[in-house]
């Protein structure tokens, strides 16, 4: 997909004062590709976008567009247009003036500007609003004016800095499909910054998950979602449930040793690079088959036993908080099970993500001698801090 | 006691202060402008315009020119503080530009008197630097001296308000313009200044009214004719005890100030439309 490396970022480092925000970052983006930079606040995704746009000077590394080095060029000479999180519309100018300003700066004649502004307004469904000031528009309309202002100058690369975060939830779902459709229609290369994993997956060809100034994983939405490269990526992509296991890697199989609250299981290695010993297992609440302990076992996989502590309806499924030994995990089921019910959780092999437990086993690792299956769960409402190895 | 009465009682002290210290003297001055020897009439105004029309025109021109220059300098200072890319220069300017605000008008007049005189510091420096010969040295203690004093004293005040307003402008709006290729001058004029236009207008109107009422600067720098209305008012009272003409002159300067306020109001109404 990105063989031609239209936008290439090589060994990019950016720091503010003594703090390093980006560290030797490498990324290539193909022509016409839609890439989402996904990460929690402070991971450096906006800094990366601003460095690409030319608003942040890198301390090392290079940025090239179609083989041309743009690292030291001012923002307007890079063939890129940035859509700001706050939209940054000029409140004293009408919609038409906002959209046409870039063309005016290029010295185009007035008739050409008017024609292009008309095209952009029609493209974005803003026809008839040209004379309004931004203050008289709704959030969604402002967002489209900001997009129109960026597209009017016909940039090679469109940079989007959390452009949907100021919209309310329902409009956001609509606008993200609109932006994606527009990007495909225009065939423009786009880099989109977001902290919303669903938004990143819905919009992008490729998702780049960032963690503490580095790329944790880059791949298609399916790859990121189904084959997370690290515990951090797994947690960020929703696999918040965490268990500590012991396993032995043998050939194409990983044999998980039985513990007081789970049975033994063998899962395919599937190309994973793992060492035998303490493993960190992660899985999503919706990946679990939840049934009462006395029901016949329907699915293959790792079976855990515990009891229901609480249950709530999320719409579509009931979310159960289940205690496995000392560890609470979340598990979804179509039917609600009453609190204190003894249950079995079965996690199919392909939905069980396994990683080496980071060493040294200080505060981060559970004490395995007293409770072999003692686990540490992370709270789903909070992004887990990256484990430092 | 019924609640409305209690409320009235509570605002009464403030109201009394305004009425006694502001409304009554203003009314007395306005009425006084129309008092002539045999009752009421326009005699004071006839005399005012006959004697002081050049001074009224002079005052309007001086204060208008000063206001325009103050606006230009304040935009330049605020613009550099907001858009300047050399952090050290910005820090120095930020520290420096406010000082004249804390110096009273009379001290400004005194300082500029010694600085701008024919054998003052400015000419001595220029002669010493070989830029002009002693024969070319002229005194700036005329209309130019008043304008320099006003601009020097009032620019920091306007710059302070304008720079504050500029600092609160969404920086994204500046970066968006830069992203599309606008130069810093264009960003200043087309993006930044329009967003702080209201603050700029308000502070310029306030400056205009302040300059209309300064007595010390024209007395110290420009003790010749034509001079400013304030000097004429002082002269009418001190030399002749002529409160009638003094009040008429005061009313004229009030009318000029009101014109500035009306210009501002019309502008802000159009902005909102």
TrEMBL record, chain A:
The keyword Secreted does not apply. The keyword Lipid metabolism does not apply. It comes from the Bacteria. SUPFAM superfamilies: MOP-like, P-loop containing nucleoside triphosphate hydrolases. Keywords: ATP-binding, Cell membrane, Membrane, Nucleotide-binding, Sugar transport, Translocase, Transport. Residues 7-237 form the ABC transporter domain. PROSITE patterns: ABC_TRANSPORTER_1, ABC_TRANSPORTER_2. Residues 358-377 have a biased composition (Low complexity). Residues 358-389 are annotated as: Disordered. Residues 378-389 have a biased composition (Basic and acidic residues). Belongs to the ABC transporter superfamily. This is ABC-type sugar transport system ATPase subunit. It comes from Ancylobacter amanitiformis.
From TrEMBL, chain B:
It is found in: Cell membrane. Pfam families: BPD_transp_1 (PF00528). The keyword Protein transport does not apply. The chain crosses the membrane at residues 56-83, 95-116, 143-166, 187-209, 245-265. InterPro entries: MetI-like, MetI-like_sf. PROSITE patterns: ABC_TM1 (PS50928). It is a multi-pass membrane protein. Keywords: Cell membrane, Membrane, Transmembrane, Transmembrane helix, Transport. It comes from the Bacteria. Belongs to the binding-protein-dependent transport system permease family. CysTW subfamily. This is ABC-type spermidine/putrescine transport system permease subunit I.
């Amino acid at each position: 997909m990105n063989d031609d490396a239209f936008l290439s970022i090589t060994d990019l480092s950016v720091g503010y004062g003594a703090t390093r925000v980006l560290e030797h970052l490498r990324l290539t983006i193909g022509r016409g590709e839609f890439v989402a930079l996904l990460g929690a606040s402070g991971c450096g995704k906006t800094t990366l976008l601003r460095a690409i746009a030319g608003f942040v000077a890198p301390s090392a590394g290079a940025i090239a567009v179609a083989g041309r080095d743009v690292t030291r060029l001012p923002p307007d000479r890079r063939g890129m247009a940035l859509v700001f999180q706050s939209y940054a519309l000029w409140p004293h100018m009408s919609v038409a003036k906002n959209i046409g300003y870039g063309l005016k700066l290029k010295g185009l004649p007035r008739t050409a500007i008017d024609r292009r502004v008309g095209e952009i307004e029609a493209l974005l469904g803003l026809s008839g609003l040209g004379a309004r000031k931004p203050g008289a528009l709704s959030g969604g309309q402002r967002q489209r004016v900001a997009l129109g202002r960026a597209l009017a100058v016909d940039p090679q690369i469109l940079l989007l800095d959390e452009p949907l975060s100021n919209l309310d939830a329902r409009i956001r779902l609509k606008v993200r499909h609109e932006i994606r459709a527009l990007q495909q229609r225009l065939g423009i290369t786009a880099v989109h910054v977001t902290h919303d994993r669903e938004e990143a997956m819905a919009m992008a060809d490729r998702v780049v998950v960032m963690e503490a100034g580095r790329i944790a994983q880059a791949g298609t939405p399916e790859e990121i979602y189904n084959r997370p490269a690290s515990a951090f990526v797994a947690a960020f992509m929703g696999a918040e449930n965490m268990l500590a296991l012991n396993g032995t890697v043998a050939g194409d199989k990983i044999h998980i040793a039985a513990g007081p609250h789970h049975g033994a299981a063998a899962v395919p290695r599937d190309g994973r690079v793992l060492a035998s010993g303490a493993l960190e297992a992660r899985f999503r609440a919706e990946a679990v088959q939840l049934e009462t302990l006395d029901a016949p076992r329907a699915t293959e996989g790792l079976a855990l036993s515990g009891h229901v502590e609480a249950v709530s309806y999320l719409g579509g499924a009931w979310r159960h908080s289940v205690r496995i030994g000392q560890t609470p995990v979340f598990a979804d089921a179509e039917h609600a099970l009453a609190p204190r019910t003894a249950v079995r959780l079965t996690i199919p092999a392909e939905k069980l993500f396994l990683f080496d437990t980071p060493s040294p086993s200080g505060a981060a690792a559970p004490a395995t001698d007293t409770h072999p299956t003692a686990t540490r769960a992370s709270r789903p409402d909070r992004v887990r801090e990256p484990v430092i190895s | 006691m019924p609640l409305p009465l209690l409320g009235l009682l509570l605002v009464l002290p403030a109201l009394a202060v305004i009425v006694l210290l502001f409304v009554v003297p203003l009314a007395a001055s306005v009425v006084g402008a129309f008092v002539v020897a045999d009752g009421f009439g326009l005699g004071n105004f006839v005399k005012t315009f006959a004697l002081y029309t050049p001074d009224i025109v002079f005052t309007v021109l001086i204060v208008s020119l000063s206001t325009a220059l103050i606006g230009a300098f304040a935009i330049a200072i605020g613009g550099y503080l907001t858009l300047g890319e050399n952090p050290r220069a910005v820090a120095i300017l930020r520290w420096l530009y406010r000082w004249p605000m804390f110096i009273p008008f009379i001290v400004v007049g005194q300082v500029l008197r010694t600085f701008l005189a024919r054998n003052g510091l400015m000419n001595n420096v220029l002669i010493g630097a070989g830029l002009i010969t002693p024969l070319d040295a002229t005194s700036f203690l005329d209309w130019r001296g008043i304008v320099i004093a006003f601009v020097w004293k009032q620019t920091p005040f306007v710059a302070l308000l304008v720079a504050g307003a500029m600092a609160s402008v969404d920086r994204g709006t500046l970066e968006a313009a830069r992203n599309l290729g606008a130069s810093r001058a264009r960003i200043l004029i087309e993006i930044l200044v329009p967003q702080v236009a209201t603050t700029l207008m308000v502070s310029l109107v306030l400056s205009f009214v302040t300059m209309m009422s300064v007595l010390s600067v024209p007395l110290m720098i420009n003790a010749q004719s034509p001079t400013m209305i304030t000097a004429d008012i002082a002269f009418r009272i001190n030399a002749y005890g002529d409160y009638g003409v003094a009040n008429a002159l005061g009313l004229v300067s009030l009318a000029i100030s009101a014109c500035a306020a009306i210009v501002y109001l019309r502008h802000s109404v159009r902005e909102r439309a």
